[in-house]
Amino acid sequence: MAAVDAAAPPCPAALRDQIGHLSLPTRTAALLGDTPEDGSPWPHPRSSRARVARSPEASAVAELCAALHTLVGHLACGATDVASYRNALARLVGLGPGLTPTGDDLIVAIVAASRVLSLGDAVGGEPLIARAAAEALATAVFALPPTSTTDVAHHLLYESAAGRVPVPLASLVGVLGDPRADRDTVTLLVARLVTTGSHSGADWLAGVVALCRAVLSRRAAAGV
Amino acid sequence: MVRRVIVRRGTYHDSARLMRISRELAALPGITAADVMMGTAANVELLARAGFERSDIRSATPMDMVVALTTADAGAIPMVESRLAELLAGKRERSSQSAGGKTGAGSVAEAIACHPAANLVSIAVPGLYAAFVANRALDAGRNVFLFSDNVAIEDEVALKRRGCASRLLVMGPDCGTAIIAGVGLGFSNRVPRGPVGIVGASGTGTQEVCCALSRLGVGVSHAIGTGSRDLSSSVGGMMSEFALRLLADDPGTRVVVLVGKRPTPAVADRLHLVLGSLGKPAIVRYLGEPARSDADAVV
Prior knowledge:
By secondary structure, chain A is an all-alpha fold.
């Protein structure tokens, strides 16, 4: 585990460049709702295969995708009421396959990324995510009951709210929006991340990318 | 289409293993889909909405493995159960063979099955998992020696409440030493058996008392460790009180000793009342404080 921190407040332009040029694994893309049906064993929520099969795992992908976008949407809008985060988390926690269920991995990554993105921006302006919003999310994560998920996942969730996450994830979020982190550096960090665990790394990447996209989309809509 | 759930209690493997199990089972003849998940509330709800019988999965917990099968042939299910048992047994054989070629149990239930006469389970696993394993021991009606630390205080309180209600010892967490009926647990000293029963919330304090008595030619009936936090306000001396009452009922114990750091006044007062009610001479040693010999006071 490593502390979540960044050498410098994130720069929106650098973040846009980093996220826009990422090559995403199939699993990550499916969770984000990106790719069309590709016959992969991890069905896209809108794929015909997913609709016909209605397998629990396919249903989980659809629910995870929707819940993920709700949570990152709250952060991007600067929501500060803990209750809204509690409700959003309830749709994710413990959901999906794995000893650390996918929903929990998404939360861990979003908490980590929100901590960095709530630092003031590079030119001394407002942070990309309101500090109070990031803190409200962490508060809600701290309050998750141990019985809501597996012991291992609950430990990771608690640690993430306390500002500590697995090293590969800390390494990636630490360079978010850092102009000194060129594309090769980010590509290398992403490659290390997605090879962590059997799927946790890909799920963490989905959480990070979803939050970054939500923040950047909101800025674009506001003409910033 | 038949939907059936197999729940394997207390069976947890890393995600890669879960995925391999899922793929192996899904590849069996007659099986349409095999989803392997942990029994979290969210996944139980997911499976119920997917058409699996809620009564089959309601009792699953987050540390239970749930295999959700979809098949057009109900007759294929026994084959899946057999293959699942093979896959899980194969993992255990590899694990135990990697430990010097000796076969070993992979769970508390298996360990008890190998040693049915054992009335105590000694646990030394990472703290994250310790409460779970201790609860499995209590499920089986066994006393617990819990060497592990880094256990949440809430878990310690819950374990000790459960132990007291079931009249089972929960020695720990963070219990480094105990002697039960002459058998040393954790780090302990080889001392003679005798009439002094000890309840210790301090491992080193317990060892010192045992050794001091031994140097005087006095033996120990039992030295029951409680873990370092038992006398804290949160735990309230719960296991200390239970252990003291056990020693009061033990015909081999003629004198009782309580050793540990001084607790809060509320906890101390209550334990002193308990000591006074045991019907046997009682001595309290609060570490770091000067000894008193006031015959009218417990401390």
